[in-house]
Design brief:
With 175 residues, the protein is mainly alpha-helical. Helix content is 72%, strand content 5%. A two-stranded antiparallel ribbon has the order 1-2. Helix 4 crosses helix 5 and helix 5 packs antiparallel against helix 6.
Amino acid sequence: SQNDVLPQILQYSNQIILDLCLDAMPKNSYPEQWLLSSLDAELFRIYSLKLNLVDLASQSDKQHIITTINKAVDTLFAEKISSIGSEIFIQVAKQIFLTVLDGEWKDHLLSLDKLRQGINLRAYAQKDPFIEYKKEAFSLYEDMMLRIEENIVSHLSHVQITKSENSSSPEVIKD
């Protein structure tokens, strides 16, 4: 339903931010060990956000950085929704969902086909091909799900939607 799309996108987004932050600022690490420039680069790649976290880190802790990122992303989506209206945003989000799912699923099926073609070579390594296939297929599926979530959030972050004066339907412009 329409009401499920936005919470789903925000859930994906929160998980992506958490994963990025855990990679850049691992548990039991010191601030000087944090990889904030690469976190900045990832946030720019996915969300087109320039937060300059390296400067922020000197006067804040890990939780404050995560909160700052979440607020920036929430603001990004809130501004998109307020500029075009929630109905149009949801319409565009659904289209992006379908397009990304369709593309990733096709790629996944191709990957499974390639895996199936080469899996019998595992028997030479004294491994059960069926068990190896199941393990690798599950790993491919998990990777696909992560890519789907990231691509949906990234596409929605980068998409520019304008209302043309002589048309009631939105015009989607991708950077």
